[in-house]
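Justification of computing resources. Each target in the renewal requires a structure prediction run like the one illustrated here; the chain below, 151 residues long, is used simply to show the kind of job we budget for.
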Amino acid sequence: MEWKNVNLIDVIVFVKDIFKRNNEPYVISFNDKNEIVVDSRCDKQINIDLNKNKEIEDFFKPFLTDLMIVKKQKYPKSVFYKKDGEIIFELYQYPENKEIRFFYVDHDKIWKVFHDKFGLNYDDTQSFIKTVVEDTLKLGSITPCYVYKIR
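Resulting structure tokens:
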């Protein structure tokens, strides 16, 4: 069984985040089909195909490289991220609470692909983006959500 090109730590952090949200206990193990198996006490079993996770990362991570950071005078609480001349992300600092930071993701270019191509629901997409963006861009704690048109 080959595990090359798969960052198992990222996968495990992703899984832990899913269960932490609901305060559910879980056990992570591996099966013979190159999958991580997560069992929880709520009779839920999740099989995560590591090859699919790699495919998702291969789709998303290029969006996080060679970004141009843009500030707009009209939106002082936001930082915009451009890729190939188009704004694809917005980091918004909630004014009343410095710990609340929304990371808006372009719906059509990115968020929709997680659902349509990879079959991820909203929570799984949000968790995946949160883990990868926090690790890659070093932004601290963020709450990803989608937006159809970034300002």
